Amino acid sequence: MSLARHWRLQNQRYRLLGVQCEDCGARLFPRRQVCPRCKSQNLQRYQFGGEGKVYSHTVVYDAPAGYEGFVPYIGALVELEEGPLIAAQLTDVDIDDVQIGMPVEMVTRRLRQYGEDGLIVYGYKFRPKLKEAP
Amino acid sequence: MMKPNREVGIVGYGAYIPRYRISAAEISRVWKMGEDTLHLEEKAVPGLDEDTATIAIEAARNAVRKAKIDPQKLGAIWLGSESKPYSVKPTATIVAEAVGATPHTTAADWEFACKAGTEAMQAAFGFVGSGMVQYAMAIGADTAQGRPGDQLEYTAGAGGAAFIIGPREESMAYLEGSHSYVSDTPDFFRRPSQHYPTHGSRFTGEPAYFTHSLMATQYLMDQLGYGPQDYDKVIFHQPNSKFPVRLAKRLGFAPEQYEDGLLVPVIGNAYAASSALGLAAVLDKADVGERILLASFGSGAGSDAFSFVTTELITRGRNPLPGVADYVTRRREIDYARYARHRGKLSMY
Known about the structure:
Radius of gyration of chain B: 19 Å
Number of helices of chain A: 2
Number of domains of chain B: 2
Order of helices and strands of chain A: HHEEEEEEEE
Helix content of chain A: under 10%
Distance between the termini of chain B: 54 Å
Structural class of chain B: alpha/beta
Strand content of chain A: 35-45%
Structural class of chain A: mainly beta
Number of strands of chain B: 14
Distance between the termini of chain A: 45 Å
Strand content of chain B: 15-25%
Largest sheet of chain B: 9 strands, mixed
Order of helices and strands of chain B: EEHEHEHEHEHEEEEHEHHHHEEHEH
Strand order of the largest sheet of chain A: 6-5-4-7-8
Helix content of chain B: 25-40%
CATH topology of the largest domain in chain B: Peroxisomal Thiolase, Chain A, domain 1
CATH superfamily of the largest domain in chain B: Thiolase/Chalcone synthase
CATH architecture of the largest domain in chain B: 3-Layer(aba) Sandwich
Number of strands of chain A: 8
Oligomer: heterodimer
Shape of chain B: globular
Strand order of the largest sheet of chain B: 5-4-6-7-1-8-13-12-11
Largest interface: A-B, 25 and 26 residues
């Protein structure tokens, strides 16, 4: 368990804080030092809205260490409204109800814990959008 | 009666209730108790990846969106709970980080059983009312546990409600006055390292819940010169369905005054979020100019009573932000086996 590593990733994990390229406008998550589209290093913090759609999904029955307590869970690629495609778990949804293209929104949940006396790691997951705009 | 020199009120609020429900009938199926004794249909159960921090984060995010303020202007993030994820390490800093309020702010966890959230609210009114900060957030959130087979298991639910306190001119509901009433009454407690609480059964009623809630409420109404007929809505702490209804009747309130804020039959007792969620449910439906009375209760024991009046801003953000009713109707029923897994009652090693 690296406390420093988890602490460094906190802002991007808790609330999808990424970067925007000030030269070509690309919005990037996770944050990068150099824009992969135009090679610019002129990147500023960008707060993602947290809404997107399921691009693809799978069910995990044999989880890596630290995630056994959640099986079976849904791993998905989520296409954020601002463009980036990110890997995340889906939550608050039954396996049979997941559809490609389903509107989802970011929530902050427990990702894992390091035993009974270790760190609890929180981060983004996605759930079916609770309420559509009128 | 307490009232700060500077006029204050609620400038935004948000709620959260987990998706999962277990019915009283299902708990009774396992433990063979009469499920009708507490008049509950079902209670909310947190998901496998939920705890007091995640519940508080969603309620707090809804409150920030409702208030339409920059979270960097929050001078306090105060979280009341009896089910903190860490015994030592503030949950409030996790919430503050997640809503984007760090680092120039205060953050702390409050403890007073089921009134920890309103205790934080009481302090937030003083913090804003003194002019020390522009906005302060008070949250009540819990994932309460009852010993398997105990009467508490039928009621111990989960949920959270967050309130952003600020100046009256920006408020959806302004504060007329408040009062707190406390004494050393050991009706319910949990010692360090103990997983489940101990309660005094019938002792939790008359000397604890009823005395403290009645005294706080009656004193506040007397000081303001109001009677029950002056209030459009009233919300009490909801440890079960019987207590708040009996209390309301003793104080002279009618069903149409207390029913909007009575959530315990469908979500259980959300502890520090119980009366706070009731207030959020009432604000969700309130019209301009309604007078609302809130009186929490926390074991150990005490009650905080508040008198609010809604303003022309009361409908701000009502759509598309999710309200209490949206979370109540979002439900997935689970059986006792799945409930046992969700509540950490199954050991994997």
